[in-house]
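agent> Task received from the user: take the single chain below, predict its 3D structure, and emit structure tokens. No templates, no multimer pairing.
agent> Plan: (1) validate residues, (2) run structure prediction, (3) serialize to tokens, (4) report one or two observations.
agent> Step 1 OK, no nonstandard residues flagged.
tool_call: predict_structure(input=
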Amino acid sequence: MYFTCEVNSDITDFADQDEFACRGVGSIMRSMTREQAHRFAARWLPAWTGNDPEQLASFYTDDVFYRDPTVPEGLEGKPALLRYLSKLLADNPEWVWTQEDAIPMDGGFLNKWKVTVPVGDEVVICHGVCTVQFRGSLIRRNEVYFDSLPLISAIKSWNRRKQAAGR
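)
tool_result: status=success, residues=167
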């Protein structure tokens, strides 16, 4: 069953449980404003930096679906997401994610983002989009799309240089 939520415009923090007046248990938000998406991303995207997978996973529902170019079939459930994030964040503790724009969509927003990734002695910048769909104040579905070739190429190049230098 699909439920409609009304947004309480007096609330300033997306995490406040009263921000959405939803009808029905486990309601899915019908829409989100650009400003709400910006406020949410201002809290959520920094959690991708610093190697704290538990903190990042706290933004997701227990039955989350997550997909990105390295897991094209997707992951289901918070335990699978947490295992994936543990390795991903450990490998990239200093990357920085920022929002470039947010476009409201059914159930959440389309997040246009930029990530700055230190790779050895260089920095790779990637731009992409992801769908962010909610149940209550938590992400229930997150699908990430970007051209990962520049990042993968930089990682392979750095690994070859390290190997050649005997590191």
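agent> Step 4: summary for the user.
The domain at 34-164 is CATH 3.10.450.50 (Nuclear Transport Factor 2; Chain: A,).
agent> Done.
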